[in-house]
């Protein structure tokens, strides 16, 4: 995780200090405590972000309009058709690499969004 990489120079610096082992241990403990607090805050943020994404997806799924409920699956199916047509050479043009990147982001966002919905519901049941 990125947090551990950020704190590695700090712990390396503590190890090189010309001080007693007790003082080094105190500094290591303080650095570890700070790292854990930061990690806890990041997890809280990610949890709130997932809740927010899940509530947006839930609102769309419960919307009154058919299009509001189905625009994400329609978009992904459109991308899928384009990819299949591109792979088999049915298109008059080749998809640009940016289109593939967009497809990967869209599919990843869709999968993550669905996963976030499931995780959020499990977390709420656990609370």
Structural domains: how many: 1
On the 0 to 100 scale, the average pLDDT is 79
Number of helical stretches of at least 4 residues: 4
Strand content: under 5%
Order of helices and strands: HHHH
Structural class: mainly alpha
3D shape: elongated
Q: Low-confidence parts, pLDDT < 50 over ≥5 residues?
A: none
- Sheet bearing the most strands, described? none
What share of residues is helical? over 70%
Q: How many beta-strand segments?
A: 0
Report, as a whole number of angstroms, the end-to-end distance: 26 Å
* Rg calc: 23 Å
SSE layout:
Layout: H1 2-16, H2 21-61, H3 66-87, H4 97-126
Helix pairs in contact: 1-2, 2-4, 3-4
Describe this structure in words.
With 127 residues, this protein is mainly α. The chain has one domain (2-126). Helices cover 85% and strands 0% of the residues. It is built from four helices and no strands. Helix 1 packs antiparallel against helix 2, helix 2 (21-61) packs across helix 4 and helix 3 crosses helix 4. 2% of the residues are buried. The mean pLDDT is 79.
Brief account:
The protein is mainly alpha-helical and 127 residues long. The protein has one domain (2-126). It has four helices and no strands.
């Amino acid at each position: 995780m990125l947090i551990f990489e950020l704190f590695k120079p700090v712990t390396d610096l503590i190890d090189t200090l010309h001080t007693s082992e007790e003082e080094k241990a105190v500094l290591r403990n303080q650095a570890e405590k700070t790292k854990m607090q930061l990690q806890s805050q990041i997890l809280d943020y990610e949890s709130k972000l997932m809740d927010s994404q899940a509530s947006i997806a839930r609102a769309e799924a419960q919307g009154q309009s058919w299009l509001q409920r189905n625009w994400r699956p329609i978009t992904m199916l459109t991308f899928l058709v384009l990819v299949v047509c591109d792979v088999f050479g049915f298109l008059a043009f080749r998809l640009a690499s940016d289109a593939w990147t967009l497809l990967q982001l869209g599919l990843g966002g869709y999968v993550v969004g669905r996963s976030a919905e499931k995780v959020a519901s499990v977390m709420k049941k656990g609370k």
